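residues and backbone:
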Amino acid sequence: MRITDLLTEDTIVLDLNARTKKEVIEELVDVLEKTGKLNNRQTFIEAIFAREAQSTTGIGEGIAIPHAKTKAVRTPAVVFGRSKEGIDYDSLDGKRSHLFFMIAAPEGANNTHLEALSRLSTLLMDASFRSKIENASTKQQIIQAIQEKEGEMVTEEKQPYGKKKVLAVTACPTGIAHTYMAADALKAKAKEMGVDIKVETNGSSGVKNELTQQEIEEAVAIIVAADKQVEMDRFDGKHVIQVPVADAIRKPEQLIDRALKQEAPIYRASGGQRSYASKERTGFYKHLMNGVSNMLPFVVGGGILIAISFIFGIKAFDPNDPSFHPIAKALMDIGGGSAFALMIPVLAGFIAMSIADRPGFAPGMVGGFMAANGGAGFLGGLIAGFLAGYLVVGLKKWFSRLPQSLEGIKPVLLYPLFGILLTGFIMMYVVIDPVKALNEGMKTWLENMGTGNLVLLGLILGGMMAVDMGGPINKAAFTFGIAMIDAGNYAPHAAIMAGGMVPPLGLALATTLFKKKFTKAEREAGKTCYIMGASFITEGAIPFAAADPGRVIPSIIVGSAVAGALTMMFGIGLPAPHGGIFVIPIVKGNPLLYVLAIFIGSLVTALMVGLWKKEVKE
C-alpha cells in the first residue's frame, strides 16, 4: 500500500486556520470526520491528546505528526495541513511547526497500513522533500511529490553491511512515527560518519530488522532509544546506551559517537552472572533514580497538600491547638499521613525492583516501611532498597541450584519469604538504630551551624541545581533536600528550590532585557521559561545551555548559587518539596525575602548572559 492511498486531495488543507496546538488538532480531525474516516470524533481527539501527553509529536524541523491507533478510526488515513506562519506545537527544538501530518490508524490495522504510515515518517527526514511540500501551490503537487519520493525508496528488510559495529533499537509507545524517524536519523548520521549500523524497530507492525545473536556479539555497543519496554536480556555483557526515543531523532551523532567510544555501562541481564565492571557507579545511579522517580509523585502531591494545610496555621491540623481547622487536618492526613508516609517505602521498593526485578519489590517495600517507622528516615530507606535488591539477587543465585520442578514456586513463595525475612532481620538488628542516631546527629549539626557555614551550604546546594539541570548532580541535591525535610530540617530545601527556579527564570529575564542577543525562536522560548521557572522546572534552561554552554552554564550556576546562599542568609525554610511559586506563601520565614533571593539570583544570571553573549543577526 502506498502513502497516497491514505492521503488524498480530500484530506489535504493547504492553509490552516488554526493558531494553537489544540486548534490544529481539532481542524485536522474535522477533515477526517468530514471524509468519513472516523467512527467517533471525540474518542479520536481524546486518543490524540493522550498520545501528546506521553511526549510531544512535534519532532522539530517544522514538522508535527500527531497520531493515534484506536477503534474510533473507521479506515486508516492521513490528513495533511500546512501553516505558513507556523504554530507553537511544543516541538522538541522549540521552534514553530509548519507541516502537520495526522495519522489515523484503526485498532485492527494490518501491517500493510502500518508500514505505509511509518514510511511517511521516513520521507519527512529528507529536507529536500520537505521543501517541495512547503512550496507546493496545489494539492496535486503535494500528492505528486509524495509519489515521486516514495518511488525512490528501497525497502530495507536487511541492511547491506557486513560485520556490524553499532546496533540500535528504537521504540515509542504508539510505534507509528517516532520509532521510524529515530531509526532513520541514526542510519542517516551513521552513513555520514562512515559507521556501520543496524537498527531494529519495535513498531505497531511488530519487530522489524531484528538483531541477531551473532550481530549482538560482534557489536561494540548497542543504542536503545525507547519510550517503552523492549527485550533487554539479549544484551547481557554489552555496552548499552539507554535514552528516550526523542534523543535518537535530535542527537544521533552524539549517540553513535558514545557507542563507538563505549561510553556506556555494561548491561546486566536479570539473573545473569556478569557485572558492570568499571561502570558500577552508573548502575548505582540508575537504581537510585528508579526509586526517586517513582517516589516523586508521592513527595510532590503529599508535600504540597501538607504545605496547603499550613495556610490555615502551622498547627491547624492538631485538634488540641486553638487554630485547629478540620480541612487542615484532612489535608495533613491525606498528604502527610498517607502520601508522604509512603515516600520511603516506595523509594526502597523501586530501588530493589531495579536491582532484582519484580522479586525485589516486596522486600524493598517492607525494608523501607521499617526504616520509616523506625526513625531511620530517608537514609534508612536508601539502605533498605539496595539491601533488599542485592539480597534477592543473591537468593536467585542460591536457588538456581534447586530442581527445575520448583521453578514455579520461586517468585510466589521463596523470593518473598526469604527476601522479606532477611531484609527485615538486617534492618531491625543492624541498620535502623545506627542510622537513626546518624540522622539525629546530622539534624543537630545542621541546626547548630553558624550563619557563615549555612550560607556556604546554600551556595553549594543552589549551584548544584544548575550544573546539569535535572541530571545526576541536580538530583543529588534534590534528594538531599527531601531527606532533610523528612528529618525535620527545612532550610536546605529552600535553597535547593530557589537554585532550581533561577536557571529558567534568569534566561527568560535575559531574553526580555537583552532581546538583540537572542534569536526570535529563543525569545519565544524565553516566555515559556517564565512559566517553567516559576513551576520549579529547571530543565527549561536546557535548550539555551545546549546552544551556548560556555556562556549559559557558568551564568546559571552563579545565579543559582547566589539565590541558594541568600535563602540561608535570610533564614528561610521550605516544608514542601516542590511547587515553585505556589508554595512560597507557606515558607518558614519571610516569603518576600525568599522572592527577593530568587529574583536576585535570576537577575545575576540574566546580566551575566546578557553581557557575555553577542548580538545575533537573523
